[in-house]
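Two proteins were folded this term; both appear here.
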Amino acid sequence: MKEEKAFVKEITPQSEDFSRWYIDTIKKADLMDYTPVRGCIVFKPEGFELWERIQEAMNKRFKETGHRNAYFPMLIPESFMQKEKDHIEGFNPELPWVTEAGGEPLEEKLALRPTSETIIGHMYSQWIQSYRDLPVLINQWANVFRWEKRTMPFLRTSEFLWQEGHTAHATEEEARQETMQMLEIYREVVEQELAIPVWKGQKTPSERFAGAVDTYSIEAMMKDGKAVQAGTSHYLGDNFARSFEIKFLDRDNTFKYVHTTSWGSSTRLIGSMIMVHGDDRGLSLPPRMAPTQVIMIPVGPMKLREQVMEAFDPLFDTIKASGVRVRADLREETPGWKFNEWEMRGVPLRLEMGPRDVENGQVILARRDTGEKVTVALDGIVESIQKLLEEIQQNMFQKALAFREANSHLEIDSMEQLAAHIAKSEQENATSGWVLAGWCGDDACEAKVKEETKFTSRNIPFEPPVFKETCICCGEKAQHTVWFGRAY
C-alpha cells in the first residue's frame, strides 16, 4: 500500500487542479514531450499510436463512402489566401509566414497552412472541367499551423495533426448531403470508438468557419465541464469555387461553379479522450482505442516463477494470436508497482497469473474502469477477454454520458439565473457544465453572454432535450435552442 500511495501522489487530483492533472497524466503516461519551439510537442510512440487508432477508424469509414487520400503542399502563396476575403480575415492573426529562403527574400511570402481550402481550390480548378469529373472526394492527413497564444498539449498547439476532407459537387443538394454524412461519421467514430458522447448541431454565424455558408459540429463535455469541439463539417457553397474559378461544363452545356465542402478533426480528440475518461490514477483508455488492451503480469514468489512462466508464455501467444493487443510485463519490479504503472497508463484490462492460478487452470482479470477483479478459467479465456473488453467499452461510454447529463442544465432561462449558477458552482468548487438556452438570433445577445460569463455558444443541437421559448439574454422570442458552455 505504501507503494500505491506514493505513486498516486505523482498525479495532481482532478478536484485540486484539473489542468495540472491533465499535464501530469500525459507526461507520466509518456504520451508526449515538449520541444524548444513554443507551442509544439513531440508525439511519443504511446501518444502517436492513439492517433493511429483514430486514423484507422476514420480511414475505414472515409473509404467506405468513396473518399480517397491525397497530399497537398504545406506552403500556401499569400495571393491564394487573399482570394477569399473572409477566409484570410478569419485566420490572419494565427498565420505564420515564410518570407526568406536560401538567404534571399521571397518574391511572395508563403503561409504555413492553417487549413488547405485555398491550395486545394486552386488544384481543383485545374482538374475539374466537366460534370463527368464530379464529385471529387479527397481527404488528406497532414499537419497545420495556427500560432496559438495559449497552448495545451493535444488540445491546442501551434502545430497539430489532423485530417481535412475537401469535396466538390455539381449541386448544392449533393454538397449538403456530403456535409451531413461526414458529420455523422465523426459522431460515429467519437461515440463508438472513443466512447465519448457528443451533441451534433449547427454553429451560430459568429462561430462558423471563415468562408463557409454553414458550419456543423460535434461537441463533447470534458470532466471539468468544459467543451471541446471534436469535429466540424462545413458547407462552403460556391464561395471558394468563385474565388478560384472552379467551373464545370454541365449536362445542359453551360458552365457552372461547383459546390464545395470541407470537414476536419484533429489530435485534440486524443486530449478529449484523456479528459473524458481519466481519473486521479491517470489515463483510462477505451479498449477500441487503447494501444495495449491487456497487460499480463506474473505474480507470486520468484522461486516459483519458472512454473508460472511455463503456462504464462503459451497463454500470451494464444491471446496475441486472437487479435487482442496484449503485452507482458516481465520486469523485476514488484507486482504492486506494475499494477499502478499500467493503471496509470490506462490499459483497460490486467491479467494476473500466479502459482495457484496455474494449479487451478485460471487467471485473474482486473478492469481499469471499475477496479473489479474476476477469476476466469483458462478454458475459453480469449472469449472471456473479448467479452470483458466490450463491456468496458460500453460502460465507459455510459459513464461519460451520465456525467454529461448530470452537468447539462436545462432550467436556466435568464442572465441572472446563469450568473447565479456560475457563482454557486465556483463557491462549491464544482463544474458549471453546459446550459441549454434560448437565443433570439441577434449576434449582440450571443456576444453579451460570452462577455459577461465566458460561456460561448457550442452549437444549435439538431435534437435538443427541450426547446427554449425565450432568449437567455434579452428575453425576446427564441429563434434557436443553443448549448452554451466554457470551452478549450
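Next, the second protein.
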Amino acid sequence: MDIEATIAGLGHLIDGRIVRNDATFPVENPATRSPIGDCPEATDDLVDAAIAAARRAQPGWYAAGDRERRRVIGAMAEALTERLEAVVAVSALEKGAMGGAIEAYGGPAFLGHHAAAPLPVDVIEDNDERLVRVVRKPVGVVAAITPWNSPILIACVKVAGALLAGNTVVLKPSPFTPFATLLLGEVWKDVVPPGVVNVVAGGDDTGKALVSHPHTALISFTGSVEAGRHIAAVAAPALKRVVLELGGNDAAIVLPDVDVDLVAAQLFTSSMIMSGQVCAAVKRLYVHESIYPRMVEALARLADAATPVPESAGGSFGPISTRPQYERVRLLLDDALTHGAKPANAGARADGAGYFQAPMILTGVRPGMRVVDEEQFGPLLPVLSFRDVDEAIAAANDTPYGLCGSVWTSDIAAGERLAARLECGTAYVNTHAEVAPHIPFGGVKDSGIGRECGTAGVDGYAELQTQYVYKNPARVATALESGDRVV
C-alpha cells in the first residue's frame, strides 16, 4: 500500500461522491512531528451540501425497513474488513503508533452486531382487546463528531446506532486524525445509498456549522467536557437531541485481598492503554495501605519497562497524539511535582523525538492536586492509599466526572456491593475499560448524556413512539359511551 498516494487522493464523502476542494489544513505525525499531508477542509457550502444530501436520503432510508438497513450495515462491516489493514495503517500514521490504531479492529464487530440485531419493539400489552407497543422511529439527520483518540471505532458505533434507527448521518472526525475517517468514507461509498452516510473533515468552524445547522436533528459527540457543554448550549434553543460522551477521571479501588502482581499488571494496562489517552482508562488509583508499597513497586517496574520512543526505534509506548495534549500532560506533571508528588519510577523522556512522555507512577499525591482532580488523558497515574473503604468510595465519587469506576478484590460479593456505590455510568469488578457492542456505555454528571451501544444506545438515536391498537372498535365505542374507559 502506498500510504502517501492513498492520503493524497482522499476527499469528503457527500451524496455518494468523493468531493475535493482547495481549502486544506496540515496534519502531522506525533511520533516524529513531521507533516503527513494537507487534509481537505469542508467549507460551509460543503457542510450544507452534506446535510442536504442526508436530509433528502433520510425518508427513503427509513422506508427501506429494518431488514434492508441491517443488510447495508452488514455490508459496511464487510467492506471495512476488506480494507481494514489500509485504514489501520493510515490511522497509525496519524497517531504515531500502531498500538494507537488497534481500536480500528473493533469497528467491524460493532457494525456487525447492529447488522444482526433487529430494531427493538417493546410490547406492553397484547390481549384480545388491544395491543400497546413502543417502536423506534428516526430523529432525522445526525451530526456525528468523533475524537482523535479512537476515530474509527467510535465512528462505527455512532453510525451503526444512527442508521439502524433510520437516521442518516454526517460524520466529522477530529482535525488531528482526519485521514483514516476520510478513507472510511471511501470504503463505504459504494455500499451505502447516496446521502445516507456523508463524511466531512475540518476544524472547529466545520464542527460549529454542523452543530448549529437548522437541519441537524441530533448531535452525537465524543470529546471534552468544555466542547460538550458548548454543543449542548447551541442545541438547546432548537431542542436538538444530544448524545454526549465527555471523558472521565476514572477511579479504581484495590482491596487488600488481591494478588498484587496480577492486579498491578491489569491496572497498568487499564491505565496506560494508548498512553493513557482513553476516556475509560483508570486515572486515579486508591490502594489499601497494607499493600500500597508493594502495589507501587509493581507498577513502577512495569512503567520502567515501557520505552517511550518511536516503534521504528524499538519503542513499546506510543506518543501523546497531539501537541496541545502533550503540553497539558507536561503541565499536570510539573504541577504535581511542584506540589510534592514523587515519581515512583524513573520515567525517562525521549529526546529529540515526537510528543513522547514516559508512563509515570506518582505517589505523595492528594486531592486538590490537578493530576488527581482533573482528567490527565496521558500516561500519569496518581496512586493514593486508604485505610477505610468508605473513605475510598467517598474519594472516588468526589469528582464532577462519572464515566467508569472499578473495585478489585477476591471477595466478589463485597466487590459488587462497593461497585454499586460508585457514581459512574459503568461500574466494574476486577476489570476496567471494557466496552462491547451489546453493552450500553456512557457517563453521568459531567461525563455526558445518553448511552452508546446496546439497545439503550440505539434508543439514543431514536424517537420512541407508543402505539395503541384496539382490535374491536365497536367495543371501544360502547365503553366510551358507558364511561367505563378513561381517555
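Residues 253 and 407 are 5 Å apart (CA to CA). The chain has a mean pLDDT of 95. These notes refer to the second protein only.
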